[in-house]
Structure formats: structure tokens, C-alpha cells
Amino acid sequence: MLALQLIAAVLIDRWLGEPARWHPLVGFGRCANWLEARCNRGESRRLKGLLLVVLLVLPPVLLTTVLTRIPVFGELIAVLVLWFALGLESLKRHIQPILQALLRGDMSEARRRTSWICSRDAAELEVERTAVESVLENGSDAVFGAIFWFCIAGAPGALAFRLINTLDAMWGYRSERFVCFGWAAARLDDLVGLVPARLTALSYALCGHTRRALHCWRTQAPLHDSPNAGPVMAAGAGALGVTLGGPTCYRGVWADKPLLGAGAKAQPRDLPRALHLVDRALGLWISVIVLLSVAGALL
What we know:
By secondary structure, the protein is mostly helical. The chain has one domain (2-298). Helices cover 71% and strands 7% of the residues. It contains twelve helices and three strands. A three-stranded mixed beta sheet has the order 2-1-3. The longest helix has 45 residues, at 127-171. It is globular and about 55 Å long. Belongs to the CobD/CbiB family. The chain crosses the membrane at residues 50-83, 142-164, 277-298. It is a multi-pass membrane protein. Converts cobyric acid to cobinamide by the addition of aminopropanol on the F carboxylic group.
């Protein structure tokens, strides 16, 4: 049943993408912004951030747990929740306009579009590199992490992972505003992403240039400041044969990111190659999950 629910959610995502209106994650994000603006002040910011993570994540996860236990109806809810948690088609729809702008030489539009999928300063963006990095990292966050936790804990697990990941994307910065308040969201995201990020890195390696990807993962990932993004992007860049990383500007502050991968800098042609790598990895995940489900049913 789990394999069928996964396939159904992936097909819905391919067919419809994310909901154009009334997306649950959009409403969740607005609620999180409203609470953060009122609570991220004064003393005990770490404690406030932790309490808000619990307040925002626990109720919808508990509600999902109750709803998915309803006979028949619960199975449909599980598929819909996983669909909401997946973001592959949405990622593709954000990348295509960037690629089109690059191909016609409209760098201003390419930077503007790229800034929608990352937290970097638009004026300082290396578009091709940033877009490829976003594809690889979002493959882990918006696809494989959700699928991993769906397999481990069903729809509640996938939802919990996606909500935590969303809070980390909103609050998990080391800026003066969020270094304390967003600490809980960032650390919890590191924890829930620990295993799926490494499975994602392995999948990228198996679906690309395997030996180079594994070498980049082993030697370069420890240099990255993120315990999960490092393996994912190092293995993904190695699989693609491109070099990522380097100086990066976040909200006016420059950070010197380690170089990841091997080969030339990312080019426009590498954007569809990165998306294709995620697609191949997804096919690998689905195949393995189906085989394990069939084997479990036969035993």
C-alpha cells in the first residue's frame, strides 16, 4: 500500500504541481511569519523559538495522524499529504523560466527568478551555479526527505519533515535576528535530514558519475558548514561533473563557501542536467521501495 501511495503522490505532483491557491505550506509560512514577528524579541529567544516550532508542527502532525487512521478515507489523506510535501514539479517550474532567461541573455530576469528560490542577494547571484545548487539541495529537502519520512512514519512523518524544513528555511539563519530564535528549527532540521540527505547523496552518485561523486562527497562535504547540504551538493556536483560553491552573498554579508564537485563552472545546460539527475534518483527510490514492498508481501 505504501508503494502505491507514493506512486500516486508522485503522479499527482507531475500532473498538477503544487496547488496554485490555498497551498497548506503557504498558509503555514504566513502563520509562522506572524508569530515570529511578535515573539522574536526580548529575552529567551532560543526558548521562544523552540516553543513555536513545537506549537506550529505538533498540532497538524497529530491531526494528520488521526485522519490517516480513518478507513479508506485515511489512505486518500495520506496520498494528499505526501503530494503537499513533495515539491519536484514546483522546482522544475521555477527552473524553466531561469533557463529561458539565460538562453536569451536576459541576466536581470534570470537573477530575479533565481532569487525566488534562494535567500541570496539577487544583484550578486551567479545564476547557473545557484540554480544547480538549489536543484540538488531541494531534491533532498522537497523530494527525498519527505519520501524517506513517509516510508518511516507515514503521512505524519512526511508532514513533520516538510514543516520543520520550512521553518528552517525561514528562520535557520546565523544573522543577528535569527541566530538565537531560529536555533531550534535549524538543529531539528539537521537532525531529521541526517539520514535522507546521505541517501540522497548516494542516489546522486549512483545515477551520475559514481566514482567522482563518491570522491567529492568523501573529501569535500566535511568542509561545508551544513552537515546535510555538504554531502548532497558535493555528491551531486561530482555526479554532474561541475564545480559549485565559492563566494556567496546572503543579505549583504559575504560567505566563502567551499568549492564542491569537479570540472568547469555550471553552465545553462547544467540546469536541465541537474533536474534529470533528480528524476533518475527518484526513479531509483521508487524502484527500490516497490521491490521492498513486494518482497515484504511475499515473505
